[in-house]
Amino acid sequence: MQHEMSIDELGTYGPAMSNAVRTCVHCGFCLPACPTYQVLGSEMDSPRGRIFLMKEVLEGRVELDEAAPYIDRCLGCLGCVTACPSGVPYGDLLTLYRGRAESRRRRPWFERWTRRFVLATIPYPGRFRRAAWLGQWARRFAPLLPARMRAMTELLPSRIEPSQPLPATIPAQGPRRARVALLAGCAQQVLAPDINWATVRVLAANGVETVVPRAQVCCGAMSAHTGDLARARSFARANLAAFPDDVDAILTNAAGCGSGMREYGLWFVGTPLESQARRFADRTRDVAAFLDQLGLSKSPPPLKRARRVAYHDACHLAHAQKVREAPRRLLQSIGGLTVLEIPNGEFCCGSAGTYNMEQPETADILGRAKAEAIASVSADTVVTGNIGCMMQIESHLRRLGRPIPVMHTMAILDAAYRGDG
Predict the structure, then answer these.
(1) For 339-368, b where at least 16 C-beta lie within 10 A, e where not — what string?
(2) Is residue 53 a contact partner of residue 106, using CB atoms and an 8 Å limit?
(3) pTM of the model
(4) Contact at 8 Å (CB) between 388 and 195?
(5) Which residues contact 388 (CB under 8 A, 6 or more apart)?
(6) Phi and psi dihedrals of 74, rounded to 5?
């Protein structure tokens, strides 16, 4: 059955999408940077191949369902954007295309159910906590579960820790140098609530007052990147209203969330909220980038025992937000800590939001490769700035028989400040 799309009917999204299509000169610099092309070896599983397919669908020469498997297999890691000499805004094209195409798709019933379950669960911490407990129980029956459900359970930590809500305001220690608002996140509140507490302690130690808006909700990134732009905009509207204007920055400590919030202007392009959304996006910063620019008011005390940490670049931090050196500089401020580079570190670990649930075979190959690369550098700890990467890497290191601890950048800094080694 033909599911037609055309640039003419895309309205306000048309210029952004057609600009991305026109900018690509099909040079091929993106091919070595694309994880799915490296794994699958198909031109249509490369960025330039997908751009060609999206263009053909939009112009009515290829059926939507014919192109869909190749677009679905894209991680959205944006490694291609870093590699592209022409500045193709591939991420904008992918997000808008998926948002337009998803309502026209006819997915198998189990795919539809899985997507609905994920999007109705993970963005809501209370629901996700209950689902995570159920998932831990179901893990004992993993061999009997469908691949997608098995992938969900394997990513869960061995224990779901109780979470203590953050206060509405965490004052700075000593003279106040800045005032910020923090996105608490969704999955992170359930899977690793200590990250938020570590973040506000590190900020306070460096003279930063943190406000945690009570009315904030999910950032909307997961919804947007799976094609549910209506739900994503609903979350974004709530956050535009919830976050105060009288702060120096809006901070995130999850790369995927930060990348999503910096897309708010794109999500509302051509609407009355576009200007407000773009201002909000411009004020959104990753906590590592913010602290690095502000400068530490005091260096953490040196470690009592030397440690070697492997730093993993989360794709939506390194490629989407162009934040690479800031986390490394913060880690290097800790005396006795050696920061190691991971071979082929620019490649995605295979997490990519819901990707490891929707494309478990490819995600598994990428996760195993990342774990093997980490194991090769003999690190004591793995450090990264995204909860999805943490869960994926920890899972694959465990399967590899190398259960190396995986920690957030802020958790490492917090431990150093508190003298925890």
Answers:
(1) bbebeebbbbbbbbbbbbbbbbebbbbbbb
(2) no
(3) 0.91
(4) no
(5) 187, 254, 256, 314, 351, 352, 353
(6) -75, 130
Distance (Å, rounded) from C-alpha 47 to C-alpha 29?
A: 10
- Residue for token pair 């954007």: 81
d(CA 257, CA 30): 25
Do the Cβ atoms of 173 and 156 come closer than 8 Å?
Answer: no
Question: In 84-178, where does DSSP find H-type helix?
Answer: 90-102, 109-119, 125-138, 147-154
The CA angle 169-255-419, to the nearest 5 degrees, is 60
State whether residue 341 is helix, strand or coil: strand
- DSSP reduced 3-state for 411: helix
Residue with tokens 């699958």: 40
* Length of the chain as a residue count: 421
CA dist 268 to 75, 98, 232, 234, 354, Å?
A: 23, 15, 10, 11, 23
Residue limits of CATH 1.10.1060.10 in the chain: 7-102
Long-range CB contact pairs, 23-27, < 8 A, 24+: 23/86, 23/87, 23/88, 23/89, 24/48, 24/51, 24/86, 24/88, 25/86, 26/52, 27/85, 27/86
| CA dist 393 → 30, 214, 362, 376 (Å) | 25, 31, 14, 14
Most distant CA pair in the chain, distance:
66
Among 3.40.50.450, 3.40.50.300, 1.10.1060.10, 3.40.50.980, what is the CATH number of 7-102? 1.10.1060.10
CATH class of the domain at 300-417? alpha beta
402 token code pair: 């190398």
d(CA 360, CA 143): 14
The pair phi, psi for residue 408, each rounded to 5°, is: -80, 150
Chain-centre distance of CA 408, in angstroms?
13
CATH 3.40.50.11810 positions along the chain are: 300-417
Instruction: Give 10-residue mean pLDDT values along the chain (421 residues).
Output: 49 69 89 96 94 89 91 95 93 91 83 85 86 74 68 71 88 97 93 94 98 97 92 97 97 97 94 96 98 94 92 97 97 96 94 86 95 96 96 93 95 92 60
- Count the alpha carbons within 13 Å of 385 in the hemisphere toward its beta carbon: 34
Distance (Å) of CA 168 to CA 109, 171, 180, 183: 42, 10, 12, 12
